[in-house]
Amino acid sequence: MSVVAAENIVAALGVLGAGAMGWRMMASRRAAAMSVAGGDSVHAAPPSADALSRMIETLDLVPAAVLVLDAGGRILHAGPGAWELFGDSLGAIMRHPAPLSAVLGLRDGDRAEVDMMLDVPIRRAVRGQFRRISIGPGQSVVLATLQDGSERDALERMRTDFVAYASHELRTPLAALTGFIETLRGPAADDPSAQQRFLEVMAGQAGRMQRLLDRLLMLSRVQMIEHRKPRGMVSPAAIVSRVRDEAMPLLEGGPASLTVDLPAGLPDFAGDADQVVQVLLNLIENAIKYGSDERDRAVTIGLRVRQTVPAALMGVVGAGKIHGPGMEGGVRQGIAFTVTDNGPGIEARHLPRLTERFYRVEGSSARRTGTGLGLAIVKHIIDRHDGRLTVESRVGKGTAFTVWFPFGEVVSLKRHETVIDTSCPQPADPG
């Protein structure tokens, strides 16, 4: 949506709202407005419930992310388009200093436009346009339209990151390929046995580059849609069935085996089935890599599914938590998938960094084959689902990764009430 178009929408909203309520301009409007709290104070009288309800009926017909605010920036109403696009983030948007400052500085008839970046729980680029209108003597509201520029922002970051990561991570395998090519052209030109050895290593390096590019593209696709909440419903049983089938190539011919603990009757949950499967496959692939060693020890991988609340997960992993947006004290039910292995485990100092891009645990066998992007992909998918990722690991005993997906959509604003409280929540207990 262009800036001009957005401005036109804001202007049109004022006309539509006024027309729906049959408001008329009166000659004494300016004097009356100025006589009540100066006419422009954020302490101006709030609009009457009847006037506000009639305005809302009209604004809800507008196909845009529309908000009605009081003169102090408090949300009085969020239209269907705003809920559709931003949902639970609306309160965070209006608590952001940029729009709040803009709204507080508006006088009747003024307009303002601000750009803001939200980083919690996920990164979102938002542009807001605001116009304050008087709806009666001493009464005013602020009409706002919000535009989501997250995809454009993600695309720009994706381009920059792709070039930076690819140039950094591809340098080593490209240097190896260049060295072997020079050797094949020179000292090994007439040595068939050396040629076969070098060609095998070159094929491995080419495969490494292909895996890296595949993971980079996958990470980019995940980031592009991270701000869109999934709308489908996911069956835990169907997920486990797909994971079993798609994990077979990873397990065949190797020392690893997979056991599944899936109770009957688990309810469906809101999610993107393909992404949930991708999360579990990434965790199983990591279990195979980190669980094996040079002796090719047998690796037992477990996949356990259960219905639980976030607080229960915290009771299991304790200090092992490495990621997860704030939840309301474990009151929300969800489905937890736990992937365990009997590998060498991970030292506690590595746990907080496991979801960083290209971070690899020192001295692990996976360092030779992994891209360091698997858990970064997992993190972004879980963020999109408003879920949690926890990890518990004991050196010499094994590791357990748990991903938790909540039931339904996260809603902290009160959709069915006219006035919405956007006051800042109390900080979470650091313990």
Automatic annotation (TrEMBL):
Residues 165-409 form the Histidine kinase domain. The keyword Phosphoprotein applies. It is an enzyme of class 2 (transferase). It comes from the Bacteria. GO terms for biological process: osmosensory signaling via phosphorelay pathway. Its EC number is 2.7.13.3. InterPro entries: BphY/WalK/GraS-like (IPR050351), HATPase_C_sf (IPR036890), HATPase_dom (IPR003594), His_kinase_dom (IPR005467), HisK_dim/P_dom (IPR003661), HisK_dim/P_sf (IPR036097), Sig_transdc_His_kin-like_C (IPR004358). One of its GO terms (molecular function) is phosphorelay response regulator activity. SUPFAM superfamilies: ATPase domain of HSP90 chaperone/DNA topoisomerase II/histidine kinase (SSF55874), Homodimeric domain of signal transducing histidine kinase (SSF47384). Keywords: ATP-binding, Kinase, Nucleotide-binding, Phosphoprotein, Transferase, Two-component regulatory system. Pfam families: HATPase_c, HisKA. It catalyses: ATP + protein L-histidine = ADP + protein N-phospho-L-histidine. This is histidine kinase.
